[in-house]
TrEMBL record:
<dbReference type="InterPro" id="IPR050957">
    <property type="entry name" value="BMP_lipoprotein"/>
</dbReference>
<protein>
    <submittedName>
        <fullName>BMP family ABC transporter substrate-binding protein</fullName>
    </submittedName>
</protein>
<keyword id="KW-0449">Lipoprotein</keyword>
<keyword id="KW-1003">Cell membrane</keyword>
<feature type="domain" description="ABC transporter substrate-binding protein PnrA-like">
    <location>
        <begin position="46"/>
        <end position="342"/>
    </location>
</feature>
<comment type="similarity">
    <text>Belongs to the BMP lipoprotein family.</text>
</comment>
<dbReference type="GO" id="GO:0005886">
    <property type="term" value="C:plasma membrane"/>
</dbReference>
<keyword id="KW-0732">Signal</keyword>
<dbReference type="InterPro" id="IPR028082">
    <property type="entry name" value="Peripla_BP_I"/>
</dbReference>
<keyword id="KW-0472">Membrane</keyword>
<feature type="signal peptide">
    <location>
        <begin position="1"/>
        <end position="23"/>
    </location>
</feature>
<dbReference type="Pfam" id="PF02608">
    <property type="entry name" value="Bmp"/>
</dbReference>
<dbReference type="InterPro" id="IPR003760">
    <property type="entry name" value="PnrA-like"/>
</dbReference>
Amino acid sequence: MRRITRIVTVGATTAALALTATACGNKSSSDTASSGDSAGAKAAIAYDVGGRGDQSFNDAAFAGLEKAQKDLKIKGSAAEPSDGEADADKIQRLTELARAGNNPVIGVGFAYAPAIKKVAAKFPKTTFGIIDDASVTDKNIANLVFNEEQGSYLAGVAAAKVSKSKTVGFIGGVETPLIKKFEAGFEQGVTDTDPKVKVLSQYLTQPPNFDGFSKPDLGKAAAQGQLDKKADVIYAAAGLAGSGSIEAAAKAGKWAIGVDSDQYNQKGLATYKDSILTSVTKDVADSVFNLIKSVQDGKPQSGEIRYGLDKDGVGLADSNPAFTKMTDVIGAVDKAKQEIIDGKITVKTTP
């Protein structure tokens, strides 16, 4: 059994494949991309469940690393997770990235919290970033967190306004406190906009099973079940699994709402883009870029760095022309956004 490590250069047309043996027998990969590297600075990200190509969370993190490569002339590395891995695997991955001289080293997702806590203590001169977790703290740890519930509230407003069946759906990948923030905001946005609209909520898996973030078939089946119950708008916060729900909604001629990245513009979802009403975006790309830049500038970020509606850290994408033409919907969304920023609406973080 072998592990495949992929090395890619940005802008190049070829990739070199290096094979290394592994004892665990699971497949993982790492991408290394260079764009100048004039100062020898290096940064790395370690992907969450689903890995690169999820059209969502992980791809957003890579976009930030890629921007840093181009704009800051650093060398970037990205390491893939393996199937069913334990914290020990994450510790080894982060340790290898830190030993290689990467600074910062960024864990994409709350699952990296235990590993970052241990590895950051061993490399005090290296800055570690963790996305979506504020529980582990140290002088050299930056907690990149988002007000997901605020963006989800706006999605709820839009869903309630466009629904004709008065039934909409929410699909969470894995039932964790983080994903419950998405659910809570969405449900509140729907109810505040139209109390007559029913919200169907479902989670794909329960911890410690995180397949709900990585298996599109699970998302597709859940969405089909909600469609059968007359849902005509489905919002999925489920990483790669969410692509299955988008497919199901599109084939049924109903609306889907994407998450994390602007999924209307994701190449892997181009077949279904016309059915993606909007997406709840998290500016993961800028959070990654900003952390890398802070280290390069000699003023590394640390502690909680929060991104909300007030800083455009979360929001709704407006790439679909069909969405932007819905003036009453856009008006309701803009009004809700301003009221959240002004403190007139407080969005719940639990359903």
